[in-house]
Amino acid sequence: MALTLDRRRFLSTLGCSLAASPFVTPMAFADMPSDNRLVVVILRGAMDGLDALQPYGDPDLVRLRPGFDTGPAGGALDLTGFHALAPGLADLMPLWRAGQLGFAQAVSTPYRGRRSHFDGQDILEAGTAGEVPPLSGRDGWLNRLLAGLPQATGRTAFAIGRDDMLLLRGEAPASSWAPDAALDLTQATRDLLLHVYHDDPLFRETAEEALLLSADGPDKRKEGQDKVEALFTFAAKQLSGSARIAALSIPGWDSHRNQANQLRRPYGRLAAGILRLQADLGPVWDRTTVLAMTEFGRTAAENGTRGTDHGTGGTLVVAGGAVRGGQVWGQWPGLAEADLLDRRDLMPTGDVRSYAAWAMRGLFGLDAAFLTSTVFPSVEMGPDPGLLA
Predict the structure, then answer these.
(1) How many CB atoms lie within 10 A of CB 186?
(2) Where are the domains of the chain?
(3) Please, which pLDDT band fits residue 275 given cuts at 50, 70 and 90?
């Protein structure tokens, strides 16, 4: 009886011995014919956009957050005379000065009301109009992007880790990989594996790719490198080759208490990851755009434990050599009580999906009608915010 085994199942079988930890963070990549690169970073846990990009020029910020150190007087770095950069992101200041870092303020997805991390992240990655997508048939907006590019070729689809990213889930071929998972095989075993599948084009290609990517895994990390930074190292290596899109995530942004300490590590990881891309991509950095987005913002006022709770409006971080940075995009709604959403949250004045749509239009020359009908159904792109140089 002939044995039929598809590529995903083949590598899933291999993955049983690879992903010993259930907390492996997956990454996803896709090949594209364009020379431009897009990196999407999901900041899981709801980053406090009013802390990352501090609107210290609004007098109500101090009223709402009397226990927080805010603005230049509190150690933040002045950006515009109205906005300041959180001290934890200070390493990114050279990018701001070089015009390779910017922020979109008061943005959100269409998700409202319940403020659930799980629902918020699903809606962010699905790119839908506010309702949680059904479990069956849900796909991600990056995958729909690939499906609309006839010349795009995806790597063989595979995922290693606890789960894959909804961003790239769908019918278009793409691949997932966790650099924490390594094929712990001797050289002789590797040679035997390739020999066994040498005459089978399906398995030979899959085995060769698995072994190649495994070689770029943890054994090749720089000594002392943080686990999340290692993801960016791996992403840069793929983007320096045939990959054109990378999607990954940074956890740890849920800051209900002692926010200053809670955010120190994720800020450091985000800054180090972006700078790792800049260093490792070399000249490719000039054609790269990084979008770091989160499922929703946090409350405008601090809570009783020096933290913030789940909110709505937040901040989009935009970086890269292809970016027209050194500026803050979007309309500022104000922090007066009457200006807040439900008298508690920063009022969204922009849709984070529209900024992503304009970035993809500029990077890959996509038609606006395709972006608003397929990639982000029903989104209103509005005027070009001018993200890209």
Answers:
(1) 8
(2) 7-182+217-375
(3) very high
Over the stretch 215-262, which tens digit does the pLDDT of each residue have?
444 444 454 567 888 889 888 988 898 888 889 999 999 999 999 999
For 239-273, letters b (16+ CB in 10 Å) and e give beeebbbbbbbbebbbbbeebbebbeebbbbbbbb
pTM of the entire predicted model: 0.84
Kind and range of the H or E run holding 43: strand 37-43
369 alpha carbon, distance to own chain's centre: 24
* CATH 1.10.10 matches 7-182+217-375: no
- Written as six digits, the tokens of 230 are 């290692």
User: CB–CB of 193/57 below 8 Å?
Assistant: no
pLDDT at 52: 98
Chain centre distance of CA 190? 33
- Amino acid at the residue 8: R
d(CA 40, CA 121): 13
**Average pLDDT over every residue of 274-300:** 97
Contact 42, 124 (CB under 8 A): yes
Give yes or no for residue 185 having a pLDDT over 60: no
Residue-averaged pLDDT of the chain:
83
Q: How far is CA 212 from CA 19, 98, 189, 254, in A?
A: 17, 36, 14, 36
Sign of dihedral through CA atoms 259, 261, 265, 271?
positive
**CB-based contacts of 223-226 (< 8 A; 24+ apart in sequence):** 226/268, 226/269, 226/272
Position 371 pLDDT exceeds 80 = yes
Which residues are CB-contacts of 363 (< 8 A; sequence separation ≥ 6)? 34, 36, 37, 38, 289, 322, 388
Phi, psi (deg, nearest 5) at residue 304:
-80, 0
Alpha helices (H) in 113-255, listed in sequence order: 117-126, 141-147, 187-196, 201-215, 227-239
User: Which positions ≥6 away from 350 have C-beta within 8 Å?
Assistant: 104, 105, 106, 107, 108, 329, 330, 331
Give the residue carrying structure tokens 């000594």.
Answer: 223
